[in-house]
Specification:
The chain is built from 4 helices and 4 strands. By secondary structure, the chain is of the alpha+beta class. It has one domain: Ribosomal Protein S5, domain 2 (2-Layer Sandwich), CATH 3.30.230.
Length: 137
């Protein structure tokens, strides 16, 4: 019985690593974000615009943004950023072998539900993975 419990705990712990979003994967540098806007490419799928540029870190670094111009309330901006980060966290395995600085910019004026955001996120991550595979060949 104890062996089964230990095995289940180990399986859950390895799954938690698969869906993690550690502090080291967060893009926080103003200089890096400005470079991303100026030099990076982007992909758009309503309601999210994904800016990306390759980095030398060996893993993806991410940030999410919801402009104050479109969403005056900080509560709503934080809700949108949480939804984008969660959709990324659950679907990051699509681009697990890439090295990008990524910025998700929420462009819609209204608050979309989580399913719409996740659908858009999956499309954007698949498109980014496709561009990465084309660039590496």
């Amino acid at each position: 019985m104890l062996i089964i419990v230990a095995f289940v705990f180990q399986a859950l712990h390895s799954m938690a690593k698969l869906f993690s979003y550690p502090k080291s994967a967060k893009l926080k540098s103003r200089k890096a974000i400005a470079h991303l806007f100026n030099q990076g490419a982007y992909i758009y799928k309503y309601p999210i615009k994904l800016y990306f540029i390759s980095n030398k870190e060996g893993f993806n670094k991410l940030t999410a943004s919801a402009p104050k111009r479109n969403h005056k309330s900080a509560v709503n901006r934080n809700l949108l950023k949480r939804r984008m980060r969660e959709a990324y966290r659950l679907n990051q395995s699509i681009i697990s072998h890439t090295n990008y600085d990524i910025l998700f910019l929420y462009t819609a004026k209204e608050i979309e539900n989580y399913q719409k955001i996740e659908t858009s996120m999956i499309y954007l991550l698949n498109e980014l993975a496709l561009r990465n595979s084309i660039a590496s060949t």
